């Protein structure tokens, strides 16, 4: 790019209809997909829920406080996303994650304006400016960052472009404003900002601006990383806070070699789409290099090096600048070429680069133009665990609204928690690093309620298969049922609400005993290795009933966990999970010489019409991803739902 920056201190909005239509379309897609993911209970507490809880905490006078596995902690002790304070007024009016998702998507799309302006300023061609804007709007890691919950580095992506546009116009006050906002987005944004200063100093002949930028980035980054973070983590010294942060992301570098190939593939997807032209503007890629390398080497929780993670959002402004710079250099070469000399044409190269970006985005980003989007593969596209919505999600809506108290300290299932963030304490029933049932007992003294999901229905496709299973919270539910301090007070379709010191009259009891006699109406129904020897359902009060099942093991127990699910008639939202034989005495542990006597109390929801219903029951393979929906595919071989009796609902 021409190192002599232009004098244009008053930016104007482009009047190009093509640009605004492109921005509108991309904004609609990003907002729609972000909200669809939230509506379908596929955005988890980590990270969307945490960010929302932190911002809402400011309304209670707290400094961006969220609940982690170790208790409440300020975001200012970690990534230091001061910019989240700007969203407080928005959440004061609309206290849930949706405005954050909308705001992030709209801010990202706004970054097309400075990209367009800079391209038009230097290339003096509307088609070129449109191409650069499209490269930004369609860049794969820009889109995946926006669709990956809500993060400060994603917010910084367009802010850095506005800063670069201001520097390009020599509007230094505006430049300082945008740089300040970028730095406030996340502590490590200081790294690319320092790189911008270095570029201004070495190649843009703006040494004063470059010097001040580098000083500001270095000073802010150092003070925040080594000082401010420690102020909001009073239980640890500054050194401990720093070492803890580093260990969190780089504590197991030996893993890098085992995942070297996918890391290299991610690096290719981060930079590769623009290298056909962008390599000519390689200087602009240098500010993004340190952060990119740091992410590629990270061994933090999950595959954080993967191209779909949000960290790579900070690379996008620099690949845009590299493309503009590369086109400018080709244009200059053509202008300086002797008559008749063959030179590369910058316009075809820019258009081809735009096509490459669009094709890679089409193939690698989970969005409607990707053919796989419509196949609804597990955890992708229109699948219920990505952007789709299952009928069970409507049950979740009603259950959370009717049963979960506001504000009380709570532990909730991962994908239910983001709907319940407006409270001071919000733990997870199971954290990703917990093998199952280990951490929750230590958290229970801090909560009054626990919301678990016995039919955990989120899943994704991994190298090890489709994970997790519906029994993801089995160990936690077992611990809660055996904890005398908590009682199950509400249950529907696998959603379970436990209350501390619940009144005995409200508790939905679940028991299982081993016996040798059948004390209820005798049956003889074979459901694979589980033979039903007896069944009864007795009305308690109103719509509250007690069901009794007597089972006998017939042959060898199954090799994998099974779950028995009862259903009243054809109402898909009137299902009952047999907790006694699911988590208390699983079928894999049944003795061959005794009967398994299970009893559970349940309450038929008010929105189920009165009348007589057939009671049907079936066993499902709990390792099958469709078991959460009583899908026929999850039935073990030779097993079908059977009607065992009727129930009269008043």
TrEMBL record:
Protein's name in the database: Glycosyltransferase RgtA/B/C/D-like domain-containing protein
InterPro entries noted in UniProt: STSV1_Orf64
Classification via Pfam families: DUF2079
Keyword entries, A-Z: Membrane, Transmembrane, Transmembrane helix
Keyword Transmembrane annotated: yes
Signal peptide: none
Keyword presence, Transmembrane: yes
Transmembrane segments: 18-36, 100-120, 132-152, 172-202, 214-232, 260-277, 284-303, 309-328, 349-365
């Amino acid at each position: 790019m021409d190192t002599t920056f232009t004098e244009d201190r008053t930016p104007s909005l482009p009047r190009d209809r093509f640009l605004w239509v492109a921005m509108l379309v991309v904004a609609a897609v990003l907002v729609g997909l972000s909200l669809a993911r939230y509506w379908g209970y596929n955005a988890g507490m980590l990270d969307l829920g945490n960010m929302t809880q932190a911002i809402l905490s400011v309304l209670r006078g707290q400094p961006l406080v969220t609940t982690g596995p170790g208790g409440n902690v300020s975001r200012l002790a970690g990534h230091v996303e001061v910019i989240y304070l700007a969203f407080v007024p928005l959440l004061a009016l609309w206290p849930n994650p949706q405005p954050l998702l909308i705001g992030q998507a709209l801010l990202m799309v706004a970054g097309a304006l400075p990209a367009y302006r800079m391209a038009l300023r230097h290339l003096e061609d509307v088609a070129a400016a449109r191409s650069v804007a499209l490269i930004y709007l369609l860049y794969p890691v820009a889109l995946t960052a926006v669709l990956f919950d809500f993060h400060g580095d994603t917010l910084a992506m367009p802010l850095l472009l506005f800063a670069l546009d201001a520097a390009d116009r020599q509007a230094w006050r505006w430049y300082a404003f945008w740089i300040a906002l970028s730095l406030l987005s996340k502590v490590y944004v200081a790294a690319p900002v320092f790189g911008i200063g270095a570029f201004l100093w070495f190649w843009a002949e703006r040494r004063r601006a470059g010097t001040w930028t580098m000083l500001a980035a270095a000073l802010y980054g150092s003070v925040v990383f080594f000082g401010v973070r420690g102020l909001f983590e009073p239980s640890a010294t500054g050194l401990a806070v720093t070492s803890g942060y580093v260990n969190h992301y780089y504590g197991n570098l030996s893993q890098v070699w085992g995942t070297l190939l996918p890391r290299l593939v991610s690096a290719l997807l981060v930079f590769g789409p623009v290298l056909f032209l962008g390599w000519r503007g390689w200087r602009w890629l240098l500010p993004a290099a340190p952060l990119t390398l740091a992410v590629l080497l990270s061994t933090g929780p999950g595959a954080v090096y993967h191209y779909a993670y949000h960290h790579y959002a900070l690379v996008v402004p620099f690949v845009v600048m590299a493309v503009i710079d590369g086109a400018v250099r080709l244009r200059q070469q053509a202008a300086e070429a002797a008559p008749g000399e063959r030179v590369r044409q910058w316009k075809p190269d820019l258009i081809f680069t735009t096509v490459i970006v669009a094709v890679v985005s089409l193939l690698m980003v989970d969005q409607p133009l990707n053919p796989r989007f419509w196949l609804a593969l597990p955890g992708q596209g229109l699948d219920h665990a990505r952007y789709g919505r299952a009928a069970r999600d409507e049950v979740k809506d009603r259950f959370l609204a009717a049963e979960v108290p506001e504000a009380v300290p709570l532990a909730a299932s991962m994908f239910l928690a983001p709907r319940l963030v407006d409270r001071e304490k919000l733990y997870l029933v199971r954290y990703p690093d917990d093998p199952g049932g280990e951490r929750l007992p230590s958290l229970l003294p801090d909560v009054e309620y626990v919301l678990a999901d016995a039919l955990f229905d989120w899943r994704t496709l991994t190298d090890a298969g489709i994970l997790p299973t519906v029994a993801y919270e089995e160990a936690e539910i077992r611990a809660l049922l055996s904890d005398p301090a908590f009682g199950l007070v509400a249950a529907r379709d696998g959603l379970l609400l436990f209350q501390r010191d619940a009144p005995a009259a409200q508790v939905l009891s679940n028991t299982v005993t081993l016996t040798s006699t059948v004390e209820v109406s005798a049956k003889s129904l074979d459901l694979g290795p589980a033979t039903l020897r007896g069944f009864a359902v007795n009305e308690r009060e109103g719509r509250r009933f007690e069901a009794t099942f007597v089972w006998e093991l017939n042959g060898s127990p199954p090799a994998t966990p099974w779950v028995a699910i009862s259903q009243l008639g054809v109402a898909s939202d009137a299902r009952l999970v047999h907790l006694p034989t699911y988590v208390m005495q699983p079928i894999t542990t049944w003795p061959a010489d005794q009967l398994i006597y299970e009893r559970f109390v349940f309450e038929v929801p008010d929105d189920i019409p009165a009348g007589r219903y057939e009671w049907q029951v079936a066993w499902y393979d709990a390792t099958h991803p469709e078991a959460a929906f009583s899908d026929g595919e999850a039935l073990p071989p030779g097993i079908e739902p059977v009607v065992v009796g009727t129930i009269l609902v008043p």
